[in-house]
Amino acid sequence: MILGISGSPRPNGISANAIKYILSKCEGETKYISLAGKHIGGCISCLGCTKDNECIVNDDFQEIANLMVQADAIVFGIPNYYDIPNALSHSLLERCFCFRHQGAFLLKDKAAVIFSTGYSSDEANSQVLKITDYFLKMNNMKVISKFLLGAYSQCYTCKYGLTCEDGNVVKNHGFVDKICPSILPPKFEQQPESLLKCENAAQLLNQIQA
Ligand SMILES: Cc1cc2nc3c(=O)[nH]c(=O)nc-3n(C[C@H](O)[C@H](O)[C@H](O)COP(=O)(O)O)c2cc1C
Predict the structure, then answer these.
(1) Which residues contact residue 36 at a Cβ distance below 8 angstroms, ignoring those fewer than 6 apart?
(2) What is the pLDDT of residues 72-94, one digit of tens each?
(3) Which residue's CA is the closest to the ligand 1 atom numbered 18?
(4) Is the CB of 127 under 6 A from ligand 1?
(5) Ligand 1 centroid distance, CA of 110 (Å)
(6) Which CATH superfamily hosts domain 2-152+186-209?
(7) Best probe residue, ligand 1, of 76, 80, 132, 198 (max atoms within 8 Å of C-beta)
(8) H or E segment at 21?
(9) Where are the alpha helices (DSSP H) in 43-96?
(10) Helix, strand, coil percentages for the chain (3-state, nearest 5)
(11) Residue 10 Cα: closest atom of ligand 1
């Protein structure tokens, strides 16, 4: 089973759509999980997991933990907030501490695809990709692909974008009368390069399943 996890608090955003698109191109069983609306706190370092590699904190992490262990491969869609993984995703990754005690490494050798969504396009220096990669390698997972996907800045829909001097609309286009479609960043399905990256990732996952 290939598990796709959208780390965005927005249930229908680019991370969610991209995860669903990758899963739609995967052969065999897939499962989709969105962290939107989920309550997942960070690791509280209680060490309750060291005995049997099960986190004893009772929140929405439990159901996801079980799926992560069952999965043959996992796709992580992680929004870029302030150039690091958003808090929900970060909490999930931190909680994976529970899998790695006494040589167990319950996620060991599982293939992982990581993508990060954001308006930044500097893939080689993406801290989100680097940080997520580090978390997964600490769990002895095999990261087979990592890439960025374009997402819009909140300034385009916050209602004050046209006049806010500190926002990305004015920064990118100057003072314009309205946010017309030609300056609106493209949706996921209108980004041929992003679609291709997702298709390539699915192909790699299919090779592993074969
Ligand atoms: C609090 C906050 C901080 C953000 N910081 C950045 C940033 O530093 N760099 C960037 O490229 N995008 C940044 N963004 C834009 C998000 O990355 C983008 O909205 C998100 O990836 C969209 O994903 P979604 O559609 O799946 O929710 C930020 C968004 C929010 C809400």
Answers:
(1) 6, 8, 9, 10, 11, 16
(2) 999 999 999 999 999 999 999 99
(3) 118
(4) no
(5) 28
(6) Flavodoxin domain (3.40.50.360)
(7) 80
(8) helix 14-24
(9) 61-70, 87-95
(10) 35, 20, 45
(11) 27
